[in-house]
Amino acid sequence: MPQRNHPRSHGSGEFQLADFKRHGDNVVFEPGALVFHPQTISLGSDVYVGHYAILKGYHRNEMILGSDVWIGQGCFLHSAGGIRIGDHVGIAPHVRILTSTHEEAGRQPVIFGGLEFAEVVIEDGCDIGVGTVILPGVTIGEGSIVGAGAVVTRNVAPYSVYAGVPAKKLRDRNE
Q: Which member of 6, 37, 78, 102 is catalytic?
């Protein structure tokens, strides 16, 4: 079986605002929040990141958060494939946003397979419910709501409400 050379650590997650690629005014990180590779992360103004959230930048893609973005406690955002979050977006506690998956490796352990990357986009005015999981390559359309505990495997239409596992459209939002 092939050996894999694992790094010993991804770092401490400690950061300073000056470490980010860009940042606006009034950015708040609660105690316990961790940030990895902040040099690949851009933050708008009026951004809140809750206790114990993890923003995991990646060396080859970016994480871009717009202005007036709220990220709840215990969230995990991994931007290996890139993450773009628009303005006026709420992300409830314990949401997971993933942008990479392992390729199959035949009969070898999956961890020995390569990685596939796909960007996640959350457009302006969206609200993502507690405990939601958003998988690689998904776009959440402008003004949409994703219900608590959903697993989003496909694009979400603008101004609609999705929920479930896998997430399905429940209705359009009223104007």
A: 102
